[in-house]
Every structure is written in structure tokens, then in C-alpha cells.
Amino acid sequence: MPSVGRVTALVGAVVVIATVVRAAEVFRFDASATTGPAVSRMLYGMNVARWDDLLFPAATSQMLLTCDRDAIAKLKDLKPAFLKYPGGNDADSYVWNDPKNADKDMDTEEFLWLARTCDAPGFFTVNFTQPPALAAEWLRFVNVLGGRKGAVPYWEVGDEVWGHWAKSHTTGEGYGRKFREFAEAMRREDPSVKLAANLALAAADSTWTREALRSLGDSFDMVTMTFFPLSPPDETDEALFRSPDQYRRMFRELEAAVAQILPGRPRPQYCLVGFNSTSTKPGPQTVQMANAVFMAQMFGALAETGTDMACWWAFHNAYPQRGGDYGVLTSDGKNTPHYTYWVFKLLSHGFHGRLLAANHEGPVEFYATQHGEGDGLCLVVINTATTSSAGVRVEVSGLSDRFLAPGGPQPFDMVTSGPAAAVTEHRAEVTPSGAGALTVAFPELPGYSVSVMVLKPAARAVNASEKSG
């Protein structure tokens, strides 16, 4: 059944994504008929935890001799837009300068070296249970002393303080009041920092959120949220693949609530500061291709909603008790990539720019972005079905003349289930079909697969895993 393109309403603006017609796995869109949201590279952040003793297993003085260079090289190869530290709910237990901190933990100096090596800025969460002066001292150490100005531009105050399980839990009014104390102390040290308030994604209309926003006022620059849609033992693939639509709905509700409760203030940035499939005790699904499909779906949802930043949980975080792993690499010292590693790499290298098209109403999802002013076109096809999809075709109009050139078989990259997680190269037929138009005919796409094609001017494709636009 054909579907017409959707209109995504963002607070303060109407963003029109190009009409996409889907029939028998044919996606058609006009690349010139869009004011779609920017798809920022800042969607591709990665959480690295201070308790990840695989990265820096010895004392700081020995970090260059003992660090896990294989893991660090694989992290750098992902092109992370930023690195989040010190990690989840643990942030509200961590005291950065406590002399009793274990040598095997990743301390601030080690993190800063890691971030420089990956050419990625830092994003810190400060301990909400401690005095604001401690956070201000940490910020001064990181951003003011030692010529490291701006090494960590983003600072979140507390982690999931709204949650009844959180060590730092308090009332919404109490969170906002103490946040303002943190903001005053921290901005005295570095007025340029971006301060983030953590709100509950699923509770936009709750008393806690409304009290927090009224109490926060204009003290924050960013809103951070988390999204872990499933919980053990109810981790079905069907529920997982439906959950990105939940994110779309909840994000728009939260964005609208902020605008309603704080009218007149500029729209804050929104950062999904942690997301993965399940909320606790990850099981087998997290290391299967299904989780990588979910990851790709979520990046499509992040792009379509205009989410500004995002951060996958996590780089290393195995849970052997259930045979699961939140991490994109194994935590056994071998750093074997999971399916999520390869999908993250494909998308971080290729899926950015301006969103041209989005369709997620059938088992095969489709997204397209344009790099710069006609510098490249990225096509993402996600097969959420267990069966293969034949005859997937993308028909594009409204392109610049730079794309009008002889076509032919062009490469694209795919991640799908196999003996080992990997990226494989395939060929799709690219056919110029008139002024500013072309057609891409994909071969049969396996069930549970993510395919990424980056078309450069003159319709010459490059591998997303090797080059970015």
C-alpha cells in the first residue's frame, strides 16, 4: 500500500521531509523538495565508563605503556563525535579526585588522553550528590588548567535524578534548585560550557518534569534523556523494532512540554545521552543482529525528530550472567566487534547532512541524507523482516546535474547475520533516468540487514565504511 510522505512538526518550525512513496519496496522522493532537519555528526557519541578497566588497566603514570591500543584504535575508527564519561548512574557515585579511586579505573587524565587520541570532545556528568564546588573544581582542572581550554564543552548535572532508583533522586523542584547552584559555580570557572539538565523522556507531562522545568528556568543549555525500551525477560525482536516509534512520540512530547512550560526561551539542544535495547541485565538479543537493526532504526528516528546529539551505551559493557553485552566490542580482551560496532561505523561515516527522506511504515525502512550542497547522497535501507526483500528500488529526482553521469554497478556496504559480525560489500545498479534523476536497484537484501550506500557526484558510489561525505 503506498504511503505519502510525512510532515514532522518541530517546536517553532514546520520541517517537511520529501514525499516518499513506497510500493513493492520502491521508494521515490524529490531531493529538492525538502527542508528536512540537519542530521548532525553529533548523533554519533559513545559512552566510555571510568570502570572500564580494559582500556587503562594500570596506574595513570603507566597509561601509554599499558593501555589497550587495539580497543582505542577501534574506537577511533568509529569516528565518535564525542565521548561520554564517567558512565551512567555510576556518575552520581564517582568522586573524580578521590585518592582511593582504583588504579585500573580510567581517571580524568586517561580519559582526556583517550579523547584527544580519538579527536573527540568530552561530555561529563557531575556527581549530583556532592557539593557544586567539587564539580566546579573538576571543570577548572579539565577546561582551564594545563592549556586544555574547551576539552570538555558539555557537562550534565546528575544522571536520571528523576528515577526512584537513582542514588541522587530528589523532587523536580529540588533538582532545579540545586542545578542552579551547580550552574553558578561551574560558569564562574568557564562561562562557555554547555550545561545539561537530565529529564525523563517518558514523562513529559509528569509533575516531576513540570516542577523541574519551572525551577530550572533559563539555567540550562541542553536537555539530556535516556532510552532503553525493553526490560528482561520481555525482549522480543518485534517489540524492539516497534520502539523507535515510541521514541519519536516521546521526544516530540518532551520538546513540546519544554516549549510550553518555558515560553519565550530559545530551544535548548536535545541529547539522547544513553540508548540501547534493554534497561538492565542485557541478554542474548544485545549481541544479535536484531540489536544492530534497532540501532539503525534509532539513528533514523534521531534524524527525523531533529535530535541534536546522541550517545550509544556503551563501548565495553558485557553481562556474562545472561550472555549479553551492551558494548560494541567484547569485554574479553579480544575486542571482537559485535554487529552494533559495524552498523555504528557505517552510519557515522555516511548518514549525516540534511535529511531528504524517511519511511518507516513497512518492514523495509528507508532514509536518505544529502552531504553539503550536493556533495553526496547517503541511502540507508533497513530490512526488519526475518525474510529477504527482493526488488528494493530507490527513485530519486531533483538532484543537481553533477549526478547525471553514466551509472552501472556501484558498491554499497551491508551488515547482516553471519558466522561473524562484519561489513560486506555488494553492488547495486545505478541508472541515470532523466534530468536530475536516477534509480538505484538493490539486489536481494537479507532479513535483518542494514545497507548503506554513499553516492558521490557523477553517481559514483563509495563505501560508507571507508569514506565519509
CATH topology of the largest domain: the name is TIM Barrel
Discrete helix count: 9
Counted beta strands: 24
CATH architectural label of the largest domain:
Alpha-Beta Barrel
Give the fraction of residues assigned to helices: 10-25%
Shape: globular
Please sum up the structure shown.
Helices cover 25% and strands 26% of the residues. It has 469 residues and is of the alpha/beta class.
Task: Tell me what you see in this structure.
There is one protein chain. This protein has 469 residues and is α/β, with parallel strands linked by helices. The chain has two domains: 140 residues, Immunoglobulin-like; 310 residues, Alpha-Beta Barrel (TIM Barrel). 25% of the residues lie in helices and 26% in strands. It has nine helices and 24 strands. Strands 3, 4, 5, 16, 17, 18, 19, 20, 21, 22, 23 and 24 form a twelve-stranded mixed β-sheet that branches. Helix 4 runs parallel beside helix 5 and helix 8 packs parallel to helix 9. The chain starts with 6 loop residues before the first strand and ends in a 7-residue tail after the last strand.
Topology (SSEs and partners):
Blueprint: E1 7-10, E2 13-16, E3 21-23, E4 26-30, E5 38-39, E6 45-47, H1 63-66, H2 69-77, E7 83-85, H3 108-117, E8 122-126, H4 132-143, E9 154-157, H5 172-189, E10 194-198, H6 207-216, E11 222-227, H7 237-261, E12 269-275, H8 289-305, E13 309-312, E14 318-319, E15 324-325, H9 339-350, E16 353-359, E17 364-371, E18 376-383, E19 393-397, E20 408-416, E21 424-432, E22 438-441, E23 449-456, E24 460-462
Parallel strand pairs: 4-19, 6-7, 6-13, 7-8, 8-9, 9-10, 10-11, 11-12, 12-13
Antiparallel strand pairs: 1-2, 3-4, 5-16, 14-15, 16-17, 17-18, 18-23, 19-22, 20-21, 20-23, 21-22, 23-24
Helix pairs in contact: 4-5, 5-6, 7-8, 8-9
